[in-house]
Amino acid sequence: MSTLAAQNPTPILSLEGITKDFPGVRALSAVNLNLYPGEVTALVGENGAGKSTVVKVLTGIYQPDAGLIRLHGEPASLSTPNDAAGMGITAIHQETVLFDDLSVAENIFIGHAPKARFGMVDWNQMNDQAKALLNRIGATINPTTLLRDLGIANKHMVAIARALSIDASVVIMDEPTAALSHKEIEELYLLVEQLKSDGKAILFISHKFDEIFRIADRYTVFRDGELVGDGVIGDTNSAELVELMVGRAVDSVFPQRTNELGETILCVEGYSHPTEFDDINFSLKRGEILGFYGLVGAGRSECMQALFGITRPSSGNLIINDEVVTPKSPADAINHGLVYVPEDRGKQGAITALPIVDNIALPSLKTTSNKGFVRMAQEYALAQQYTQRLELKAAALDQHVGELSGGNQQKVVIAKWLATQPKVIILDEPTKGIDIGSKAAVHAFMRELASQGLAVIMVSSEIPEIIGMSDRIIVMREGRQVAQLDNQNVSPERLVREAAGITESSAA
Ligand SMILES: Nc1ncnc2c1ncn2[C@@H]1O[C@H](COP(=O)(O)OP(=O)(O)OP(=O)(O)O)[C@@H](O)[C@H]1O
Ligand SMILES: [Mg+2]
Predict the structure, then answer these.
(1) Could you tell me the residue range of the domain that residue 428 belongs to?
(2) Which of 199, 216, 246 represents a domain boundary (last residue)?
(3) How far away, in angstroms, is 405 Cα from ligand 2 center?
C-alpha cells in the first residue's frame, strides 16, 4: 500500500464535474481531477480523449460549460489566461505559441517583463533572468538570440522557461518531452523533482509509459472525455493503464516483414552540407523500411530535409530509379515520387484553417478543375480510406484540422503524404504524440504499404520503434553516418553506444 493514499492530503486544485462541449463533440464530460501539493499526477488517454482541453480550461483559454474549479478549496473563476497566471497556474502547452521574431528573453517574459524606472522594460535584468531560468533547466541558449534561429528542442526549452518565469503553485506540462533529446529529458525530470520538493502540484500529460511510471505519484485516465480511472501509480501497471485508455488490451508486438525486398529504388551518394551533415551514403529497396537512429541534433532531420529539397546539399547525388534527381525544391522531390513527413507538424505539416478532407486530398488530386460531385466524392473517399487506417478521431471529415487534438493532427499529416502514393516516403518521428493504440495502427499500416512496394525511411529516436520496425538501421552522430546495422541482431545497447560514440573498451 502506498504511503501517498494513506496521507490523503488536501488538493491545491480540484475540478468538479467539468464539462466542455465543442460542435459535434463533448470533449470533457463531468470530469473530476485533484492535484496535490508536492505530487505529480499523470493524465493519460488516447488522442482526442480531452487531455489538452483540461489544460486549456485550467489556463483560462477555454471556459467550461458546467462544473466548478476550486483553488485551495475556494471556487475560482479562470476567465482569461491572465487570471490563471495570477492565481498561480502555469502551463507548458502541447502546441506552444511563441514568437519567431522576438528574442528568447522576450518570449519568456512577454506580458510580465521586469520593469525599470518609468515603466520601461529593464532589458539587462530581463536577459539576466532569462539566462538564469534557462540555466536552471540545463539549457545553454543565449537569451538575445531570435527564436527563429533555434531548433525545435530549444524552442521547447524556451516554452518551459516561460512557464517557470511565473512563480506558480500548479505547473501543467502537456507532453513536455515529446520534442526533447535524452539529455534535456533528464534535465526536465530533475526539474520536476525540484518542483515537487518546492510543494508545487504538477499535472503531467504523456503518452510515454516509462516516464509516467518514473515520475508520477498518481494517475488519471480519460477516455472519450470521461474519467475512467484514477489512483496511486504504485497500485497500477502499464497493462492496466492501457486497458483503461483503450478499452481493450493492445498488441505490443511489431508487425513482421513477410515480403521479399524489391529492386533498389533510391541511392544517396556522398550527400554533404557545410554545417549539418557530411558524406551520407546509403541505398534503399522497394518494400524496405530503413531506420535512422541518433541523438537529437545528430543531423538526421537536416539530411532528410536536404533529400526532400527543402535545403540544398553542398555536394552529393540523390538517385531515384537510376536517374540522378537531387531535388531543388519539395515540388521537385514530389514529382520524382519522394515525400517527407516532417517532425514539426505545426510548421511544415497541415493547414490548420482547412478541413481534414482538403488537407489530405489536395496534394493528391491536383487537377482542380470544377469542384463537381464526382470530385468531391473522390476527395472524401480518399480521406476516408487513409484516416480510417490511421484511426483518426474527428467529428467529421470537413472539420478544420486546427480543431483536432495534437495526435490527430499528426495523423492528418501522415495521411496526406501517404495518399499521394509516393515511391519513397521519409517519416520523421512518425508516432511522436500518437497514443499507444493508434501507434500500433500506424506501424501496421507502414508495414502493409511497404509490403506493397513502398520504400520507407523512418527517422526515430525511440529505440523500440527503430528495432521493431526497421529492416536495416543507419546510426548518425554529429552529422556523420557512423554505423549501418542489419536488424537481425541489434541490441538497444549497441544503438546507444553507436549514437553516443562510446567504444566498447571505453564503456567498460
Ligand atoms: N477548438 C476546438 N473546436 C472543436 N473541437 C475541439 C477543439 N479543441 C478540441 N476539440 C476536440 O475535443 C476533443 C479533445 O481534444 P484534446 O485536444 O483535448 O485531446 P487530447 O487528449 O489532448 O489528445 P492528444 O493526445 O492527441 O493531444 C477532440 O475530439 C478534439 O477534436
Ligand atoms: Mg493534447
Answers:
(1) 262-337+423-508
(2) 246
(3) 5
